[in-house]
Amino acid sequence: AQTVTQSQPEMSVQEAETVTLSCTYDTSESDYYLFWYKQPPSRQMILVIRQEAYKQQNATENRFSVNFQKAAKSFSLKISDSQLGDAAMYFCAYRSARRGRDDKIIFGKGTRLHILP
Amino acid sequence: DSGVTQTPKHLITATGQRVTLRCSPRSGDLSVYWYQQSLDQGLQFLIQYYNGEERAKGNILERFSAQQFPDLHSELNLSSLELGDSALYFCASSLGLAGASSYNEQFFGPGTRLTVL
């Protein structure tokens, strides 16, 4: 079974600084997606960034980028120029990309990110 | 706004009762997923329907059931409620199935907050 582990329950970063959230996962599959979701106080689940396992290039979305290490099964999220609006719970997540497999999303326990003004 | 709607937003009920949560997927989406977010279990997948048929089951209790209707909206029924069922219940929808299209993103609704007293 696939698992997703986030070892940092909480983190803090100074506004405008850079922070990296860690995530490791376990799977025997070779074809999958990895995600980072943001959940602000409103509780809405917001997709921040997606990485396809077959792509070697790390995904980037504006101030958000990932460091995808497939062999090490590591998937960290870097937030540059942190803003007060980045304060939220961040979930690392996994989903199979194999045709015929169920496409449920498996979530880590989350990392609560605090932005210090 | 993801285009997925969930009603009600909040629900307060007593132990032993039965409730129904409703989800309307985005226009054109055939797959509906239910997730439960609780303090002790985190975010976990409950069940998926695709075009009216049950597609995948996760950690869904026998007291819980779901269905997807011909108009593609879905309902999650929770019965014999216990204190531990208090959680945020998310519905997500997607166009199809994993591998059937290029990506098949799941779009999350705003959730229904269930409180069992």
Describe the structure.
The complex is a heterodimer of chains A (117) and B (117). Helices cover 0% and strands 51% of the residues of chain A. By secondary structure, chain A is mostly beta strands. In chain A, strands 2, 5, 6, 10, 11 and 12 form a six-stranded mixed sheet that branches. Chain A has a four-stranded antiparallel sheet with strand order 3-9-8-7, with no helix packed on it. In chain A, a hairpin with a 2-residue loop joins strand 7 and strand 8. The model of chain A has no long low-confidence stretch (mean pLDDT 95). In chain B, strands 2, 4, 5, 6, 9, 10 and 11 form a seven-stranded mixed sheet that branches. A four-stranded antiparallel sheet of chain B has the order 1-3-8-7, with no helix packed on it. In chain B, a hairpin with a 2-residue loop joins strand 5 and strand 6. The mean pLDDT of chain B is 93. At the A-B interface, strand 10 and strand 11 of A face strand 4, strand 5 and strand 9 of B.
Summarize the entry for a quick read.
The complex is a heterodimer of chains A (117) and B (117). Chain A is an all-beta fold and 117 residues long. Chain A is built from no helices and twelve strands.
List the helices and strands and how they pair.
The complex is a heterodimer of chains A (117) and B (117).
Chain A: E1 3-5, E2 10-14, E3 19-21, E4 24-26, E5 32-39, E6 46-52, E7 60-61, E8 64-69, E9 74-79, E10 88-96, E11 106-107, E12 111-116
Parallel strand pairs in A: 2-12
Antiparallel strand pairs in A: 1-4, 3-9, 5-6, 5-10, 7-8, 8-9, 10-11, 10-12
Chain B: E1 5-7, E2 10-13, E3 19-24, E4 31-38, E5 42-50, E6 53-57, E7 64-68, E8 74-78, E9 87-94, E10 107-108, E11 112-116
Parallel strand pairs in B: 2-11
Antiparallel strand pairs in B: 1-3, 3-8, 4-5, 4-9, 5-6, 7-8, 9-10, 9-11
| H and E order of chain B | EEEEEEEEEEE
Tally the helices of chain A.
Answer: 0
- What percent of residues of chain B adopt helix (DSSP H or I)? under 10%
Q: State the end-to-end CA separation of chain B.
A: 31 Å
What's the multimeric state? heterodimer
Largest sheet of chain A: 6 strands, mixed
- Tertiary shape of chain B: globular
- Major pleated sheet of chain B: 7 strands, mixed
